[in-house]
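Reply to dn_fold:

You asked what the input looked like. This is it:
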Amino acid sequence: MITLFYSPSGAEAIAAEVSATGWLAVRNTAQGARKGYVVIDGTNNCRLVNNESINNSVYDFDAVGPTERFGPPALPTSSSNVLIINDPNDVVKDCGVENTIIGGDLVDNTLDPCF
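and this is what came back:
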């Protein structure tokens, strides 16, 4: 499993060989991507606080459940994360387990199912 963040300049990828556990991401900006923040690959007990999402086309925040969306094998579910979102218009998809979402515009998973 690999957890990937980018340096503040966006020029350098920062990766880890294990799932993110207990990380704190505060006041970052994701701009012009298909998805802004993707909480994936077993990420757990992390906090995303006051991060900005600008012009991302599908979801601004995506807490991913078990999926092969990125190719097999299936990635493990995100769980027990806290996302505190300032902008009530940020689109948030939560397919993880026991994640806490405060703020944003939560996607109805019955209309837009998790896969």
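The chain has one domain: 19-106.
Hope that clears it up.
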